[in-house]
Here is the input.
Amino acid sequence: KMSFIEGDGIEAVNKYGRQKTSVLFIDPPYTAGKNGKRAGTRLYTHFELDHERLFSRVEGVKGDFLMTYDNADEVWQLAGRHGFNCRAISMMNTHHATMEEVAIGRDLSWMGA
Here is the structure.
């Protein structure tokens, strides 16, 4: 079963992260990083997020998870401090330009080399 939740992501992580059978896909507003383009501030009404708090909560998730973020040094540092793996991934934006994002998880070996 798959559910999409629009709302407080940290609250959803707290609720569903306790279940070993849950797999969370977390796609927060991209507002982390001092030098990033900060797309989340432009695209979302509710873009303010304590990224450190989110990473701390995700660290306690019992099941698996995948987070996506803007490719910023601060994001890689946050992930490293919380023991997560990162992988740069290519994506295409709405203007068909190729950009890089970051996939974050405990084990990204399924993504290949």
